[in-house]
Amino acid sequence: MPLTRDEDIKALLEGARTIALVGASDRPDRPSYGVMKRLQDHGYRVIPVNPQITGEHVHGEFVFRELAQLGDPIDIVDIFRRPQAAGEAVDEAIRIGAKAVWMQLGVVNDEAAARAEAAGLKVVMDRCPAIEIPRLGVAAVA
Predict the structure, then answer these.
(1) What is d(CA 82, CA 37) in angstroms, rounded to the nearest whole number?
(2) CA angle, corner 52, sides to 48 and 58, nearest 5?
């Protein structure tokens, strides 16, 4: 069952340090661009993943093609993809041993969520961490 209780979501955010952002954009008009910056400003290390802009930099971070290229342990994989495409990102998150997957506002994929939970990952769907952090009073990452 995806996390829905405020205290569970807050605990997930407070325990995270590194977030991989799948579907990151280098375009300032895209929601993922602003969310990445807000997460960085809160103290998280945010690693952008997008095969269309691999090798470029967004907010000072190198953009990777896929999650499998990341060498660092990932606490949360934040997914900015259409619901039907989110399953692929969830499967990659499982393969790399991420601790949680977070599907953005409007992204609901129950089958992918069930696979993630069966693999031991925490799941959040249809929410945005940039909204939840101030709403829940999550302290800045030190």
Answers:
(1) 21
(2) 35
CA dist 21 and 45 (Å) reads 10
DSSP string, 67-118: GGG--S--SEEEE-S-HHHHHHHHHHHHHHT-SEEEEPTT---HHHHHHHHH
Q: How far apart are CA 45 and CA 118, in angstroms?
A: 27
- Chain segment 102-130, per-residue pLDDT in tens: 999 999 999 999 999 999 999 999 999 99
With beta carbons less than 8 A apart as the criterion, state whether 22 and 47 touch: no
**65 vs 67: CA distance, rounded Å:** 7
Other Cβ atoms less than 10 A from the Cβ of 73: the count is 11
Q: Which amino acid is at 52?
A: Q
Write down the number of H helices and E strands in the chain.
5, 7
Please report how many Cα atoms fall inside a 13 Å half-sphere around the Cα of residue 79, on the Cβ side. Answer: 29
Q: For 61-102, how does the pLDDT look when each residue is reduced to its tens digit (9 = 90+)?
A: 999 999 999 988 999 999 999 999 999 999 999 999 999 999
